[in-house]
Amino acid sequence: MALNGTPLLLLIDDEPAQKRLISAIAARSGWRTIFASDASIARATLGTRDGMQLDAVLIDQWNPQIRPVEILAQIRAQRPSLPVLVLTSQNNVLDAVEAMRAGATDYLVKPIAPDRLLAALDATLDKCDNKTGELRPLSEKLSAPLAFNEIVGSAPQFLAALAIAAKAARARVPVLIEGESGVGKEVIAQAIHAASPRHRNRMIAVNCGAIPANLVESELFGHERGAFTGAFERQIGKFADADMGTIFLDEISEMPLETQVKLLRILQDGEVQPLGARIPTRVDVRVIAATNKVLEKEVAEGRFREDLYYRLNVMHVSVPPLRDRKSDIPALARHLLTRLSDQPGIRSLGITSEALSLLMQHDWPGNVRQLQNVLFRASVLCDGDALTPQDFPQIAAQIEMQHIEKVQPPARHGNGAHEGAGGITLFEDDGHIRQLADIEADVIRLAIGHYRGRMTEVARRLGIGRSTLYRKLSELGIDNAA
Predict the structure, then answer these.
(1) How many CA atoms lie within 13 A of 196 on its CB side?
(2) What are the residue ranges of CATH 3.40.50.2300 in the chain?
(3) How many CB atoms lie within 10 A of CB 241?
(4) What is the per-residue pLDDT across 346-390, written as a single tens digit (0 to 9) for each?
(5) Where do you find CATH 3.40.50.300 in the chain?
(6) Residue 322 has what pLDDT?
(7) CA 202/CA 80 separation, integer angstroms
(8) Which of 51, 105, 111, 257 could disulfide-link 46, Cβ–Cβ 3.0 to 4.6 Å?
(9) Could you give the dihedral angle defined by the CA atoms of residues 472, 478, 481 and 482, in that order, rounded to the nearest 10 degrees?
(10) Within the chain, which residues score under 70 in pLDDT?
C-alpha cells in the first residue's frame, strides 16, 4: 500500500470529465488517484516512486490510442501481481474480455456505478493482501484445470490428440502443442500437467507473444537489481518460479531468436542465467510449448531454430479446429454455459435446439474461445431462461454473409450493372437508385461477415473509427452483438 496507508490508483485516461469522476468516487474509499493520458506516460509512471507504490491500475479503453492489451503486457512484465481494471462501454465488452485474457483483474462497464467501482478497488486491496478476493482474470475463472476425461469432445481427430497428450503426461519429455488460436491448447497443457508426476507443483503459463521483445528474457529468466535501466529490484524469472513444476510457453513461435538460444540451453543443461547474474542456477522444469503456426514451416523460413524445434517436439499434439469437429458444439456450448453460470452476475441458462443448430452452421474462425465469448455475451444480454437464435444475431448475419459470398446472386436487368461488389444491389426494381443509408447498411453487413465480426478490422477497412462504426450500427439498426 502507498505511503501513510493511502492506496494509490493509476488511471490511464485522457478525458478530463471522466478523470474527475473516477478520482472523486475513489476518494470516498480513501484512494488517491494519479493520471496518465497515454501508454508512454503510463510506462514512465511505473518506473517512478509513485509507480512503485501503486495498488491498482484502471485503464479506460474508449480511446483507440489506448490499447489495454499492450499496456497490460508491459505492466505484467514490470509488476506481475499489480491488479489492473479495465473500463469499457457496453459495445466493447468482448474487447474487455480479451483484456482479461491478457491478465486484467476485472472490467467495469460504463456508465460506471460508484458502488461497483468501489467494490472493485476494495477487492484489489484484498488481492494485494493475499486474501481470497472474487476478482480474478476471466481466463483463470473459466480455465480451472480439467482432467482428460472432463474435456468435452468426441470427434475422432480430437480424441486422437487427447490420447497423445495423455501419453505425454506420464513421460518427462517436452511437449509441443500445435493448433489454431482458441482451440484449447492451454486446456490440454493443464490436463497434461494435472496428470503428470509434477501435479503437486505449479504450472506457470507465459504468453510469449504478449511480452515486449526487450522484456522477454527478464520475464522468463529473471534479472538482478541494476541489470538494466529500470531494474530497481531483483526479479525471479518464470523458469525459476516453475522449478519442480511445469512451464507452458504459449505462442512459442513469437519468441525472439536470441531468446531461443537461452531456452535451448535450459532444455539441454537445466540451467538458467538471470540477466546481470554471474552464475547460472539449476532448475528442474518440464516444458510444454504451444503455437498457432506450423513450427516446421517457421524453421524452414529461418524464423525458428531447428535445434530448438527438435528439442521441443519430442511429443507432438495437433489440436483440430472447431470447424472440423462441429458435432462437439452442442456439448461444448452446454459445458461452457454451466461454467459461465458460476461467475457473478451470470444466470444459469439453457439453450434451445434451434440455437444449437444455428451455432453448428458457423465456421468459428476463433474456435472454442470465440464460442465461449459469444455465449458470454449472449448470457449477459439474455432476458429469458434459455438462449434462442434471437440471442445470436451477429452469428446469423455472418452465416448469411458467408452464403452471399459463396453464391453470387443473379444480375438484374441482364448485365449486372445494377449490383456492386459482393452482390450489393445499387438500384431498386423500378430502376431508381437505392437510398444511401440502405446501401451503407449492406456494405457494413458485408464487411462484418467478410472479416468474421472483427470490429476493429471492419472499422479499419471501411476507413472509419470504431466509435463511428458503432454509431452507424445503432443508427442503421444493425445489431453488433457477438
Answers:
(1) 28
(2) 3-137
(3) 17
(4) 789 999 999 999 999 999 988 998 898 889 888 878 888 999 999
(5) 148-320
(6) 96
(7) 16
(8) 51
(9) -90
(10) 1-5, 50-51, 61-68, 90-98, 100-102, 126-144, 344-345, 402-423, 429-431, 479-482
What is the model's pLDDT at position 482?
Answer: 36
Rounded to two decimals, what is the model's pTM? 0.60
CATH number of 148-320: 3.40.50.300
Q: What is the CATH number of domain 3-137?
A: 3.40.50.2300
Distance CA 137, CA 139 (A): 5
Q: For position 466, what pLDDT does the model report?
A: 75
* The CATH number of domain 324-476 is 1.10.8.60: yes
The pLDDT of residue 410 is: 43
- Single-letter amino acid, residue 126: D
Beta bridge partners of 11: 35, 58
Share of the chain above pLDDT 90, in %: 37
Cell numbers found for residue 121: 478497488
Q: How many CB atoms lie within 10 A of CB 330?
A: 17
- Grid coordinates standing for 119? 467494490
Q: Tell me, what's the pLDDT at 126?
A: 60
